[in-house]
Write a structure and sequence with these properties.
CATH topology of one domain: Double-stranded beta-helix
Strand order of the largest sheet: 1-2-3-4-17-8-20-6-5
Keywords: Antibiotic biosynthesis, Dioxygenase, Oxidoreductase
Largest sheet: 9 strands, mixed
GO molecular function: 2-oxoglutarate-dependent dioxygenase activity
Radius of gyration: 20 Å
Protein name: TfdA family taurine catabolism dioxygenase TauD
GO biological process, one term: antibiotic biosynthetic process
Number of helices: 11
Mean pLDDT: 91
CATH architecture of one domain: 4-Layer Sandwich
InterPro entries: AlphaKG_dependent_hydroxylases, TauD-like_sf, TauD/TfdA-like
Number of strands: 20
Low-confidence stretches: 1-7
Structural class: alpha+beta
Shape: globular
């Protein structure tokens, strides 16, 4: 690690891992208990928040964080006014304690592409908190990308289209009548996402988020909504790439899995890449209406496979993948930095919280 500016607290030191400046790492210089850490976070709001605004992510490593309640005590120590309890995202998650959830229940071989949490909402989470309750044997990193750099580096023609038209999302969900929790193309059911089967409540939540609802079949649902594609940070006033194109586009997963194969060089990653390439080819031949998760420009024009690949290339150019260590706590500025998940082997349990 490379030493950086010293913190005002004598027992916490700051550094970077290798040449990367994402994330900034906080480590104890002497043994302390969890209460010492939460008190430090509470009393040094200005310091860690300035670091978070500058670097986009800070990692607490080597502290005695042993379970979900320890992690939740860190969330409380940040004094964020509204901690998350309601998740309108797509991945299946399990609630552990009031403000703490499993990060994702998707299978270990399934990659999660870079995204800012719930960027398709009008008001996405402000901060994200991750906790490595159990780091995996191999892989399983939560890679990060500075979305401010992505905005600067993206193809100007793509940027111009998004500035002019924005982004349109379409998601199709099975309903309570389907027992499967997720599939390759759809994730959790709409009743899991909304947290209710009460249709009046579903309509209310949808109106609050400008979701257009179309019901079909027995109890299946299509949700459509639009966003700008970029966001300006309310404090720093920086502008960032902020959309789910690299997650919802049918071509995105193919670009991702081949890059993962080049990184991991395993038979499993090759098998996943070949299978997903075949399935995506079938999807492409079937046409965009067959895609249960789809993204276009705001005027309905398709984002081409070539454009999607160029977006993926820019993300991987800036991507930082640091292996988890059990006990790590990562705080991400969700308006400046994206995250994902690389495939893994062995037991792995990453917990997550957020502030609205």
């Amino acid at each position: 690690m490379t030493q950086t500016t010293a913190t005002r607290s004598q027992w916490i030191r700051k550094s970077f891992i290798g040449e990367t400046k994402l994330p900034l790492v906080y480590e104890p210089s002497e043994e302390k208990d969890i209460l010492s850490l939460t008190k430090w976070i509470q009393k040094n709001q200005k310091e860690w928040r300035e670091d978070l605004e500058t670097y986009g992510a800070i990692l607490f490593r080597g502290f005695p964080v042993h379970e979900a309640t320890d992690f939740q005590s860190i969330l409380f120590a940040t004094e964020e006014k509204k901690l998350g309890e309601f998740y309108l995202g797509t991945s299946p998650r399990d609630q552990v304690v009031k403000h703490v959830f499993t990060a994702s229940e998707l299978p270990p071989h399934y990659p999660i592409m870079q995204h800012a949490e719930m960027s398709f909402l009008d008001n996405p989470p402000k901060l994200l908190f991750f906790y490595a309750e159990k780091a995996s044997e191999t892989g399983g990193e939560t890679p990060l990308t500075d979305l401010r750099e992505i905005y600067k580096d993206i193809n100007p023609e793509i940027k111009e289209k998004i500035e002019k038209h924005g982004i349109r999302y379409r998601r199709r969900y099975d309903g309570p009548s389907k027992k499967a929790r997720f599939s390759l193309w759809k994730t959790k059911r709409w009743d899991e996402m909304f947290g209710t089967t009460n249709l009046e409540e579903v309509e209310k939540i949808s109106n609050q988020n400008r979701f257009h609802l179309d019901w079909f079949g027995k109890d299946s649902l299509t949700i459509t909504n639009e966003q700008s594609g970029f966001r300006i940070h309310p404090q720093a006033k920086t502008i960032a790439w902020h959309n789910h194109s690299q997650t919802f586009h049918y071509q995105a997963a193919v670009s991702e899995v081949w890059k993962i194969f080049k990184k991991q060089k395993t038979i499993r990653s090759l098998s996943v890449a070949l299978l997903l390439t075949l399935l995506t080819t079938i999807k492409r031949i079937s046409g965009s209406e067959s895609h249960d998760v789809h993204v276009t420009y705001g005027n309905g024009d398709e984002i081409s496979a070539k454009e999607m690949k160029s977006i993926s290339d820019v993300f991987w150019k800036h991507l930082v993948a640091i292996p988890w260590q059990t006990g790590d706590v990562l705080i991400i500025d969700n308006l400046s930095v994206s995250h994902g998940r690389l495939p893994f082997t062995g037991p792995r349990r990453i917990l997550v919280g957020w502030s609205d």
